[in-house]
Amino acid sequence: MRFVFQFGRLVCAVALLASFAATCGTAAEKSKPNIVFILADDLGYREMGCFGQEKIKTPNLDRLATQGMRLTQHYSGNAVCAPSRCVLMTGMHPGHAYVRANKSTPPEGQWPIPDEDVTIAELLQQQGYTTGAFGKWGLGGPESTGRPLNQGVTRFFGYNCQAHAHSYYPSYLWDDDQHFALRNDPPVPGHASLAEGADPSDPQSYEQFKGQDYAPDRIHEQAMQFIRDHQSDPFFLYYPSVIPHVALHVPDEEMNPYLSLGWNDPPFTRGKGYGYTPHFTPRAAYAAMITRLDRYVGNVLKLLDELGIADNTLVIFSSDNGTTHLDQEVDYRFFESVGELRGLKGSLYEGGVRVPTLVRWPGRVSAGSQDDFVSGFEDWMPTILDAVGAVQSVPERCDGVSLLPTLVGKQQADRSYLYREFPSYGGQQTIRVGDWKAVRQNMTKGNLEVELYNIAKDISESNDVADEHPDVVERLTKMMATVRTPSTVFPLIPIDPRTAN
Q: Across the chain, which distance is largest between two alpha carbons, in Å?
């Protein structure tokens, strides 16, 4: 009987230890911070109040800035959508990333990232995170290796294809691997023209471009539900919004506060050639789209508070590139969208790639702080993994550095360089080392001349000092040749700068 009694005590003890271990394991999992990464689409450096905007109202983003840190020298992955997102998701700069330009794969989707590329979503899954992506993907069509469900995303809802995302009133979105029908019959195209003979001065001529079921609202609902469903788990919410990318589609009620301001707002009617859907009051529409995105951000932050998980959630907000260059649709001069910066979307000058970025992590990131550490999209993979205690899982191929020291207020050594290349829009290369920035333009025409700017003294890149600093030009030119690997799919043609010196 004594043996049986002791054996029973042993069984109880083992059970208690197992229960304790399970409890500790659960507590450890819950202690991992949730990650919320919200990505705007074509939002300019000066298009939020906290970055100097005066006409467009962004109260929730401005409040987020007061609760966390502004990164004032943060660079998107590239100058347009797909290659920028590839850098973000894979942690490789554009000289190593697989996708280096927009390249469609009809009937739907963009050039896919391959199986062997490891995304931040995959790495977080390995750390016990539930992962969700809500919005515009753009890294591989529905049947490709790059589709989100093949790249570490547990739950996906939104647009797979960038071209599909030009319409805010489409007929469907993707719900994981199935179509989710929207109540837009007919759908509103992202590229359309006024009806033949229509009067461009008559607001009724634009009624055909108004839909019923606003896709960003449906995406937002699903993103919010994902948070509710996984509030007890560590989760990664990747929220790549389509706003404020044209076409100019926004519900009328969102425009009313801007229409009441009485701006001179001539219609965008779309002339011949490439363009997006006409709009009767394009300035009001563009401002209203950004304000609606701001409201979505506010809803996410409010929900985190209501669920009691805000203090254990790292929130990052940024943009995939600068303001659109289509000045007939988006009046970037009126809004001073990039301020003193040179260049717009599609350019590797500052205005095309320096993006407004906010980070909030209560108790760790100081409220109301800002930092000018030179950083880029390749840094988010090591930063996030560092924040969740998994820095050892950063892939060797990752080009980024962890920004965690900067975010928590510690000194951090300057990065050795920040490199960008973009084979489209004439073929471009840049490298930034300290305050020096070397720029190449029109490489597809055989140009290899290097411009040189001191960004600290000349943020508008208006004074090329290459002739005054030939030693710096030589050093940065050699670096541009050695820090990259040529791509056969996205070549810098006709000259490969790796062998041009």
A: 100
